[in-house]
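Supplementary Methods, section 5.1.

A reviewer requested that the exact input to the structure prediction be made available. We therefore reproduce it here, unchanged from the version used in the analyses.
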Amino acid sequence: MSIVRPPIHLSRVVALALDEDLGRGDVTTDSCVPDDVQGHCAFRARTPLVTAGSEIIQEVFLQIDRRVVVSEVVPDGSALTAGSVIALVRGPASSILKGERVALNFVQRLSGTATLTREYVQALPTGSRTRIVDTRKTTPGLRALERLAVRAGGGYNHREDLSSAVLIKDNHIAAAGGVQSAILRCREYAPHTSRIECEVDSLAQLEEALSARADIVLLDNFDDAMVAQAVQINRGRAILEASGNITILRVARLAELGVDVISVGALTHSAPSADIGLDWET
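The structure derived from this sequence is encoded token-by-token as follows.
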């Protein structure tokens, strides 16, 4: 799988993380590791996982010490078994030790998201055209990286930020005076290139959204029976997105019922970090 390289602001994110951990120095390493000692290390998967963020290892050590060489980096999206090498690192031991935790934090977090995403994607029926997508429930400051991790896992991205798409939520509906009013106002304001998506929490609201010609309807916390009814009511008029209380066990059923998109906040807000370690090679 070919994954887009990390975003341009990666260097700023890494710099912030390094300042947080190394800003006042490393008293342990500076005390006991001579400057001339060389290290040869491997970032290694402790359990089966899908990689994401491996190129961040290179950015971490680039900022710490350009003498550190990172090689044999496994591409994002690779499915690895326990014991597999993600990247090799060699260079001044003190520099490797100073960047170890920051590099691990990034790659563990992002690989965890990629791994969980792959599990959701693989739960889809064979040949299904339903998409698994993320949400904006991301770690502040790390959204671009977490979105890359979702793609590494085989998922897709929802809107990137509030400016990138119209998505009318329940509080917008309350503030705008109803589903129809909110959709009509958005259609007047939004550019002609923007689709209108509206969240609904009942079949009655679905009817309203379809009557107002919403392009996409988000079925919020619908159970399977309601989703089946929604698909029949919709009859292909709008793209249907299921969201809320989505578990891996529901994915296949929702796809079979006919929804086009399943959005899962857990991909980014609840994914456990992958178990990855840095092994010192002798």
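The chain has two domains: 10-117+272-280, 122-269. These observations are discussed further in the main text.
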